[in-house]
Design brief:
This protein is an alpha+beta fold. It is built from three helices and five strands; from the N terminus they run βββαααββ. The chain has one domain. 42% of the residues lie in helices and 20% in strands.
Amino acid sequence: MSQNNRILIRGDGRYVVYGIHSHYKLDLPPKLKSQLAPEEFQYTVGQINALLANKIPKNFITLLGGCSLCLCSAGLTLGPSLLFNKIIKKKIKRILDKENKRMYNGLGMHWSLVKEKFGLTVEYGLLVEFIQKAELSPD
């Protein structure tokens, strides 16, 4: 899909744990202003932010605890933090799938969680792709 048919929403949170930010901006991107109501955008991103506000601090504490014990356990204490990260990504994808079915697919959009490289870091962002509706041809 071309770059014009997609919008990437980057996180702006204070914490970044394994590439997942602790917050996404609630401001509607300019490219979406004519296609989506600000309230709907805020509702979707607000659901993700609520999940992240609950899960990221716990994952961060688990990561710090795992790092402090890493030498004693040969790195095995980082496992719970990696598992929490996988669960967070799965829950974000579940929220986005539900929202796609509820509204966005009908508007010709599809939201997903994607891993993107920004400079030297790899982060997860919210990708909004515009779906081309199949045109009906007369028989």
